[in-house]
UniProtKB/TrEMBL annotation:
Gene Ontology terms for molecular function: glyceryl-ether monooxygenase activity; iron ion binding
Protein name: Fatty acid hydroxylase domain-containing protein
Principal cellular location given in the protein's record: membrane
InterPro entries in alphabetical order: Fatty_acid_hydroxylase, Sterol_desaturase/TMEM195
The keyword Transmembrane is assigned to this record: yes
Highest taxon of source: Bacteria
PANTHER family assigned: ALKYLGLYCEROL MONOOXYGENASE (PTHR21624:SF1), STEROL DESATURASE-RELATED PROTEIN (PTHR21624)
Name of one Pfam family that matches: FA_hydroxylase
Domain Fatty acid hydroxylase: 136-284
UniProt KW Iron-sulfur keyword: no
Compartments reported by the entry: Endomembrane system
Length: 342
């Protein structure tokens, strides 16, 4: 009975936190990140107005530019709002704490010690160069692991059926970021958690402790900067790309817009989460000058396939099951044919 009470209390605390995401610096929709994205959108609006906004969404007021009817009268936009609550309160809760568990498990596997028992460098004269180096290495390697996991989510057919949920959004706004299937979350969490655990463990084995990375409002410095630099325009209708080759180095909303595009030239491009350089290195980078060919959604998918919270959860299981059965039948047929030839 006590265990049930503890679980319900824990869940109630978690459920309450879902509706406080706007006040939590660790969440993408923290009000400061939203505010800086709105400021960036206003700057883009002014540029459009200066260059001639005739026939564009910048032709009217800034409010109309920020909340266009083409987005907010679309069923996909409102489905994302409903799904945010549905997914957070049900599916996401099942993964709560998994990232920390996997990270600490892999750390123990690499070092033979618990993360809670490792010595801290608090008060130690750690060199600034070492701290900066550790900060950049961990986030770069973590992003490479994220790139690899994301690549597999697109290239492995069964994983794609679950990742397709995120790409099924036909219009985007910041809450669209949370249109993810629990299985998709699980795969990505396992990948990132294991990767970070190994990287942090190797760092500990090398220098004997873990440097304290600088934070702002409890968020690692580089992640805070990433979030505050118009992160929420990544899932939006507002196009922002950096000039020239800067887009190959620094993340821009346009980089992710192209990834969500169903145009044939944009298929399986721009997998990197933070650093586009991984896409450049592995040949998956593309950055058009404008967004005239960018259209969100999954090519060939009808809107009705995933037009409810329940379908966003259930349809991937059905389609993944079909793929698996087809693969097993094909494999069985090949084995039978090989046996007959012998």
């Amino acid at each position: 009975m006590q265990a049930t009470f503890d679980f319900l209390s824990y869940y109630l605390e978690y459920a309450t936190s879902v509706f406080l995401h706007f006040a939590d610096p660790k969440q993408r929709i923290f009000y400061v990140y939203i505010a800086t994205s709105v400021l960036a959108a206003f700057a883009i609006y002014l540029v459009h107005r200066r260059n001639g906004a005739q026939g564009t969404e910048a032709e009217g007021s800034f409010l109309a530019f920020l909340f266009p009817k083409s987005v907010w009268q679309h069923p996909s936009a409102w489905l994302d709002l409903r799904y945010f609550v549905f997914h957070k309160l049900i599916g996401h809760f099942l993964l709560f704490g998994l990232l920390a568990f996997i990270t600490t498990t892999c750390f123990r596997w690499v070092t033979g010690q618990s993360m809670t028992s490792i010595p801290s460098n608090a008060g130690a004269s750690t060199s600034l160069l070492l701290t900066i180096g550790y900060m950049f290495v961990t986030i770069m390697v973590g992003d490479l692991i994220g790139y690899t996991a994301h690549y597999l989510q697109h290239k492995v057919p069964i994983l794609w059926e679950f990742h397709k949920v995120h790409h099924s959004a036909e219009v985007m706004h910041p809450i669209s970021n949370y249109r993810e299937h629990p299985v998709d979350n699980l795969f990505y969490t396992l990948s990132i958690g294991a990767g970070y655990g190994v990287v942090i463990g190797l760092s500990y084995n090398l220098i004997g402790y873990l440097p304290n990375t600088p934070t702002i409002l409890g968020v690692p410095l580089l992640m805070f900067l990433f979030n505050i630099l118009a992160y929420n325009l990544r899932h939006s209708h507002i196009w922002l790309r950096w000039p020239g080759r800067w887009s190959m180095v620094f993340p821009s909303p346009a980089h992710h817009h192209v990834h969500h595009s169903c145009h044939p030239d944009h298929f399986d491009k721009n997998f990197a989460f933070i650093f586009p350089i991984w896409d450049v290195i592995f040949g998956t980078y593309i950055m058009p000058e404008d967004n005239r060919d960018v259209k969100f959604g999954v090519a060939g998918m009808k809107s009705m396939e995933m037009d409810s919270c329940w379908k966003l959860y259930s349809v991937p299981f059905v389609k993944a099951g079909r793929r698996l059965r087809k693969s097993l039948r094909t494999q069985s047929g090949k084995q039978a044919k090989t046996g007959q030839q012998k």
